[in-house]
């Protein structure tokens, strides 16, 4: 294991254990299914997703950035800017690309089939932030690789971005609730747990809002920001109506096969 894998795994484990401990201590909402039932499927998905990514792109995204640098391909490998500016702008542009990717996964029926596996979770907690279909992971990997090549993103930007994206996903899915005043202040910059739960609402006017994973700026800029749901956070209907809480739809085989079964093809 190289140094960067060690750091990635360390940050992942640190954020996961911290958020899982917080939500076990002070849970915001009660889950309809037992934790063990949901966690088995959700955690199996993260392992399969990581394996699929390694099989499809053994070089990793940092390797893609290194290749672009060696070949002098992409914007920041062509123009001369301060390395700090190149890193900061690359991270921002990668983040906005992920925002638009998320919107596309909601808007395009074939992509929604994959992304709905994430939304079909009847509860949100740290493991929901890791529950993505391996095909969505692979498609997202191609999108990120393309953006990295176009930008000529520095390796450092890619490493920080990947670690941050993973950490933010665990953070904003955690089943905790900050006091409203803190939540509103933090929401000036970051997507909070309460804001992201609005995105997991069963109601389309709310599901198609708050697409950001990290900062709230993209939702504000592109008109998809909603600071409050119609229902209170305690009463919000989470998940998808077509997948009511059931242990039979929470297992790994049900999750893997979900995109290929009949079902609604839009996120509303
Ligand atoms: Zn979504």
UniProtKB/TrEMBL annotation:
Q: Which InterPro entries match?
A: Fatty_acid_hydroxylase, Sterol_Desaturase_Related
Domain (Fatty acid hydroxylase) spans: 88-224
Q: Where in the cell is it found?
A: Membrane
Task: Tell me which positions the record assigns to the signal sequence.
Answer: none
The record's keywords, sorted A to Z, are:
Membrane, Transmembrane, Transmembrane helix
In terms of Pfam families, this protein maps to:
FA_hydroxylase
Q: Which GO terms describe its molecular function?
A: iron ion binding; oxidoreductase activity
Mainly resides where?
membrane
What residue ranges are annotated as transmembrane?
Answer: 6-26, 46-69, 81-100, 141-161
Gene Ontology BP annotations: lipid biosynthetic process
Record's GO cellular component, any one? membrane
Name this polypeptide is given = Fatty acid hydroxylase
Species this chain originates from? Alteromonas halophila
């Amino acid at each position: 294991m190289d140094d960067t894998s060690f750091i990635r795994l360390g940050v992942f484990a640190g954020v996961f254990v911290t958020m899982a401990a917080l939500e076990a201590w002070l849970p915001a909402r009660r889950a309809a299914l037992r934790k063990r039932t949901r966690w088995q499927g959700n955690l199996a998905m993260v392992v399969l997703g990581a394996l699929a990514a390694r099989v499809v792109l053994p070089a990793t995204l940092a390797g893609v950035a290194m290749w672009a640098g060696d070949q002098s391909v992409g914007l920041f490998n062509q123009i001369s800017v301060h390395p700090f500016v190149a890193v900061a702008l690359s991270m921002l542009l990668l983040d906005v690309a992920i925002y638009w990717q998320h919107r596309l996964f909601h808007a395009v029926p074939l992509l929604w089939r994959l992304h709905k596996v994430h939304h079909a979770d009847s509860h949100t907690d740290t493991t929901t932030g890791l529950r993505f279909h391996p095909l969505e992971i692979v498609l997202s990997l191609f999108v990120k690789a393309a953006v990295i090549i176009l930008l000529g993103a520095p390796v450092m930007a890619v490493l920080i971005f990947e670690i941050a994206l993973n950490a933010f996903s665990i953070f904003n899915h955690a089943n905790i609730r900050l006091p409203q005043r803190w939540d509103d202040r933090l929401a000036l910059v970051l997507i909070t747990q309460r804001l992201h739960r609005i995105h997991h609402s069963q109601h389309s006017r709310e599901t198609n809002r708050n697409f950001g994973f990290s900062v709230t700026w993209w939702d504000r800029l592109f008109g998809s920001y909603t600071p409050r749901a119609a229902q209170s956070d305690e009463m919000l209907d989470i998940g998808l109506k077509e997948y009511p809480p059931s242990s039979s739809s929470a297992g790994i085989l049900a999750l893997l096969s979900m995109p290929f079964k009949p079902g609604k093809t839009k996120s509303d």
